[in-house]
Amino acid sequence: MDQILPQQLMESIYQQLLPNIQIESISPFNPVQVNYLPKPWETLGSGNYAAVVYHPHYSDLAVKVYAPGRSGYKEEVEVYRRLGSHPAFSECLYANDNFLVLKRLYGTTLYDCINLGLYIPQQVIEDIDQALIYAQSRGLHPNDVHGRNIMMFNGRGFVIDISDFLEQEVCSKWNDLKRAYYIIYRPIIAPLRLRFSYSVLDIVRKCYRCLNSFRKTFNQIN
């Protein structure tokens, strides 16, 4: 998996980024917080376990750094090993010391698309469906696929977080999102060009999480 990367990039990672970056994970249900990032590094995004940053001189590469105390690093490396090369996923080019160097994916998350009022074509949904089928064919179990973990670029869909693809638990998030796309987004939100603030989206996200938790409990009882 490890590939030869620019020496100056690796020096910057080990001498500048890793000794100085300050990442805090307050809750496993919310993105980690980057409290300090040494210049010239810039933040790309944050997941529930790690932060993703990049160096402006190597903008086609992204570095994912796990927060202290958060597990999942070894599992994510294994997922990328199994995935290999696929157009809807990133690729891991290097992994060591609780960080990964990834091929950078460009685009806008579906979560941000709803906020910005950007149209989400059906091709994006179909791309994700095919990508998840491919992942299953590689012995993986697509998990935690939701609006923050899906990106759109030039009308095509990409999965940007595969860290939970070794989980055996059945996850309904993608099917629920897809159902909402066809029942609510296409007939109502898209034609009316509706936009939703992040505060509203955050309320929807928290309500869904509560309902999903209740559904799991109900299914266990029955």
Automatic annotation (TrEMBL):
At the top level, the lineage of the source is Bacteria
Q: Which UniProt keywords apply?
A: Kinase, Serine/threonine-protein kinase, Transferase
> Which Gene3D superfamilies does UniProt cross-reference here?
Transferase(Phosphotransferase) domain 1 (1.10.510.10)
Keyword flag Transferase: yes
Keyword Mitochondrion applies: no
InterPro entries hit by this protein:
Kinase-like_dom_sf, Meiotic_Drive_Suppr_Kinase
The membrane-spanning stretches of this chain are none
Q: GO molecular function terms here?
A: protein serine/threonine kinase activity
Name of protein: Serine/threonine protein kinase
**In which organism is this protein found?**
Cyanobacterium stanieri LEGE 03274
